[in-house]
């Protein structure tokens, strides 16, 4: 009997259209976190984001017979997510400044949404690669780039010298750059990484 390669996209598409729940789980694991990154940027509301993304997966399951390729599924998920986020923001009686900004951008759509998709996918890949960093490097990286802390603050918090903190930061950045290049994540993804590194943690 011929073995089945469960990394084979054609296998999962066939199983998905046939209504096999494992196939839905496969696409859920593949896209859920990235869609959450995408939606939270737009809604600025974590609980609403989870509801919106879950609803998107309900919709692709209902329409599973209509999808021909995995790219069709991905495209539909982003379009559906964008539209539901827009509806949520439109119906929101009181918007924060950030929510109003994204509502205006969503109505205009175009390149802004493309940039948000690229950033969401980049953050998902970055999140995966951070798990491969040494523990202290990962901790320093998160404090600098996600919590916005300065080198001397981190040194005090972790009881390290400023030089050691800088070394951990440099090692983390170098390792992540290498990982991105090895994955052939050139073009928009690598540019997003460089902009991310350049824009924060100075």
From TrEMBL:
<dbReference type="InterPro" id="IPR036388">
    <property type="entry name" value="WH-like_DNA-bd_sf"/>
</dbReference>
<feature type="domain" description="RNA polymerase sigma-70 region 2">
    <location>
        <begin position="27"/>
        <end position="94"/>
    </location>
</feature>
<dbReference type="InterPro" id="IPR014327">
    <property type="entry name" value="RNA_pol_sigma70_bacteroid"/>
</dbReference>
<keyword id="KW-0804">Transcription</keyword>
<keyword id="KW-0731">Sigma factor</keyword>
<dbReference type="Pfam" id="PF08281">
    <property type="entry name" value="Sigma70_r4_2"/>
</dbReference>
<dbReference type="GO" id="GO:0003677">
    <property type="term" value="F:DNA binding"/>
</dbReference>
<protein>
    <submittedName>
        <fullName>RNA polymerase sigma-70 factor, ECF subfamily</fullName>
    </submittedName>
</protein>
<dbReference type="InterPro" id="IPR014284">
    <property type="entry name" value="RNA_pol_sigma-70_dom"/>
</dbReference>
<dbReference type="InterPro" id="IPR039425">
    <property type="entry name" value="RNA_pol_sigma-70-like"/>
</dbReference>
<dbReference type="InterPro" id="IPR013249">
    <property type="entry name" value="RNA_pol_sigma70_r4_t2"/>
</dbReference>
<dbReference type="InterPro" id="IPR013325">
    <property type="entry name" value="RNA_pol_sigma_r2"/>
</dbReference>
<feature type="domain" description="RNA polymerase sigma factor 70 region 4 type 2">
    <location>
        <begin position="125"/>
        <end position="176"/>
    </location>
</feature>
<dbReference type="GO" id="GO:0006352">
    <property type="term" value="P:DNA-templated transcription initiation"/>
</dbReference>
<dbReference type="Pfam" id="PF04542">
    <property type="entry name" value="Sigma70_r2"/>
</dbReference>
<comment type="similarity">
    <text>Belongs to the sigma-70 factor family. ECF subfamily.</text>
</comment>
<dbReference type="GO" id="GO:0016987">
    <property type="term" value="F:sigma factor activity"/>
</dbReference>
<dbReference type="InterPro" id="IPR013324">
    <property type="entry name" value="RNA_pol_sigma_r3/r4-like"/>
</dbReference>
<dbReference type="InterPro" id="IPR007627">
    <property type="entry name" value="RNA_pol_sigma70_r2"/>
</dbReference>
<keyword id="KW-0805">Transcription regulation</keyword>
């Amino acid at each position: 009997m011929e073995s089945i390669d469960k990394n084979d996209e054609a296998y999962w598409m066939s199983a998905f259209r046939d209504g096999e729940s494992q196939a839905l789980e496969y696409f859920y694991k593949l896209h859920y976190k990235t869609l959450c990154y995408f939606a939270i940027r737009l809604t600025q509301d974590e609980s609403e984001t989870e509801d919106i993304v879950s609803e998107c997966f309900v919709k692709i399951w209902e329409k599973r017979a209509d999808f021909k390729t995995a790219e069709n599924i991905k495209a539909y998920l982003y379009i559906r997510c964008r539209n539901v986020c827009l509806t949520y923001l439109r119906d929101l009686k009181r918007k924060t400044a950030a929510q109003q900004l994204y509502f205006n951008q969503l109505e205009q759509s175009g390149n802004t949404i493309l940039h948000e998709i690229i950033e969401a996918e980049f953050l998902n890949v970055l999140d995966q690669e951070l798990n491969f960093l040494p523990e202290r490097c990962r901790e320093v990286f998160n404090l600098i780039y996600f919590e916005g802390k300065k080198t001397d603050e981190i040194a005090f918090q972790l009881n390290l010298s400023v030089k050691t903190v800088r070394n951990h930061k440099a090692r983390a950045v170098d390792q992540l750059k290498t990982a991105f290049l090895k994955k052939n994540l050139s073009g928009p993804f690598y540019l997003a990484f460089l902009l991310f590194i350049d824009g924060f943690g100075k």
